[in-house]
Specification:
It is built from 8 helices and 6 strands; from the N terminus they run H-E-H-E-H-E-H-E-H-E-E-H-H-H. By secondary structure, it is of the alpha/beta class.
Length: about 240
């Protein structure tokens, strides 16, 4: 195991401990998109389920959006999960754009994908859904909400759903994206066969560019932003 992956493991365990993300008896469903982040999360949780405490069960689900032209190698995803001791399920869904719809395709696709994941988890007895958001995702979401919504909030490490008997967990919330990218390249993670044609034109991409520019000027900016959230956002406190 490389030095970087050991650091990721350390940050994973810190997040799980500080935010109480895993408990004995949890049945955890990993939302596996096929990107590097969710692949890394499968590896982390696959290793975790081999540990005696806490005793957890881990499976994964990959959602195919039939009316959006992107694609992943399902055989590769299945083999990858199998090597991690994780069973993979593939489910299909789609959405219709109604006349006069103002919400972007990215929002509609994401909403229906999440609905499919939560429905599958509920119907198959999982109590937690694990998402592969890393620290950059959390901080970029904070900036997006500040710039475009006028609110100071982001994706919490642990979120109890209101309409489903589930909790959403983000065990990689303390892991910088650059670490995941380094491990993905070293381990030869395969990219999706066909990337989503809409992902390059989102506000998120603009804010990601802004965030990385800020970090080049001040390498401590991510720690400052995280610290500011802990001051005003109770869910970010250990």
């Amino acid at each position: 195991m490389s030095k970087t992956e050991k650091k990721i493991m350390q940050l994973f365990h810190t997040a799980c401990g500080d935010y109480h993300l895993l408990e004995d008896g949890d049945r955890v469903l990993v939302a596996l998109s096929g990107g590097k982040d969710s692949l890394q999360l499968v590896r982390l949780l696959g290793r975790q389920q081999k540990i005696y405490k806490p005793r957890i069960e881990v499976e994964a689900v990959h959602v195919v959006m039939d009316n959006i032209p992107y694609a992943s190698d399902h055989g590769y995803l299945t083999d990858f999960c199998s090597e991690c001791g994780v069973e993979l399920h593939v489910v299909h869904t789609e959405f219709e754009e109604r006349a006069g719809e103002t919400k972007p395709k990215c929002f509609l696709c994401s909403w229906h994908r999440r609905k499919a994941i939560f429905t599958f988890a509920t119907e198959h007895g999982f109590n937690k859904v694990a998402l592969g958001h890393h620290q950059d995702d959390v901080l970029v979401t904070l900036l997006m909400n500040m710039f475009y919504q006028g609110s100071i909030q982001t994706m919490p490490p642990l979120l109890k759903m209101r309409h489903y008997p589930l909790s959403v967990i983000r065990p990689m919330c303390l892991v910088p994206e650059r670490m995941v990218s380094e491990v993905a390249e070293a381990e030869g993670f395969r990219k999706q066969l066909k990337m989503c044609p809409y992902e390059e034109v989102t506000q998120r991409k603009e804010i990601e560019t802004l965030f990385h520019g800020m970090e080049q000027r001040n390498p401590e900016v991510r720690h400052s932003l995280w610290g500011s959230m802990k001051n005003i956002y109770p869910e970010m406190l250990p």
